[in-house]
Amino acid sequence: MEMSFLVILLRLCFQILALPVYLLWFLGIWDPICKKAFPYFMVFFSVHYNSKMSAKKKELFNNLSDFASPSGALTILEIGTGTGTNFQFYPTGSKVICTDPNPNFRKFLDKNLSENPQVKLERCIVTAAEDLHQIPDASVDVVVCTLVLCSVKSIEGVLREVLRVLRRVLVPPLNIELTLITLTYLTE
Ligand SMILES: C[S@@+](CC[C@H](N)C(=O)[O-])C[C@H]1O[C@@H](n2cnc3c(N)ncnc32)[C@H](O)[C@@H]1O
């Protein structure tokens, strides 16, 4: 009896605390607030994340130049670019096409571009990675995607678009899981 009373009390407390969020969501304001606030969180988070992942990212992005087109130009499409935290790992002369469905990242992206003059912005497109129709078939050398696939609505849709826009598809021996996923989609 005491236990169930406690459960009801805790549930009530939680509902009262969550009431402002429900209200904002009901009024259609919650989503825009999150979209505005998220870039600020990512700026803070990226500093800590990159300090832990810097060595791994350096290793992963180390051979990006090997994927350059025969003319020597390297066009990178980054999906879910966010603040552009990966620009620091891109080689000199890279041209980058940024895509993200959240336009509120733009000022942070511009800051990262000005801090990384070795990277030139080719285009910035506000779109989800499931729909990259503004990017022609076989037009980019590399697609970069970090911490994004957990947010997308359709991983399959994203991978299909990635395969469409890549100039040539190589399966790097990064890790077995990634290789298997890529091969599964390639052979479908
Ligand atoms: C956790 S952040 C990662 C940002 C950046 N890639 C990084 O490594 O710091 C997730 C990013 O994915 C974006 N995103 C969410 N849904 C997406 C979708 N369907 N297609 C592309 N990007 C998406 C978000 O707007 C956000 O910028």
From TrEMBL:
Pfam families: Methyltransf_11
Gene3D superfamilies from the UniProt entry: Vaccinia Virus protein VP39
Top-level taxon of the source organism: Eukaryota
Signal peptide positions (record): none
Residue span, Methyltransferase type domain: 77-167
SUPFAM superfamilies: S-adenosyl-L-methionine-dependent methyltransferases
Name the UniProt record assigns to this protein: Methyltransferase type 11 domain-containing protein
Organism: Phrynosoma platyrhinos (Desert horned lizard)
